[in-house]
Write a structure and sequence with these properties.
Order of helices and strands: HEEEE
Strand content: 15-25%
Distance between the termini: 82 Å
Radius of gyration: 29 Å
Helix content: 25-40%
Number of helices: 1
Largest sheet: 2 strands, antiparallel
Structural class: alpha+beta
């Protein structure tokens, strides 16, 4: 049988804890596949400057960010 003093046991415990924490952190940090979709109701088309833009706040009337014209669905 072999002997294990307290400082070596503590060092091994700290090393094991660090490695497990690092692996867990890297596993959670891995990029996840995200599906981005945009509904048609958020896509607006300006009738004056023909600019297509996205506005998720307004439902009926929106202001074009390029020319400032009011557009409605």
């Amino acid at each position: 049988m072999f002997t294990l003093d307290f400082s070596l046991a503590l060092g091994l415990y700290c090393l094991l804890f660090t490695v497990v924490s690092l692996v867990f952190w890297l596993w959670n940090k891995a990029p996840k596949k995200r599906v981005l979709s945009l509904e048609e109701k958020y896509i607006w088309f300006c009738s004056v400057c023909t600019y297509t833009y996205v506005n998720t706040k307004e439902e009926f009337i929106s202001i074009c960010p390029r020319c400032g014209n009011y557009n409605k669905k």
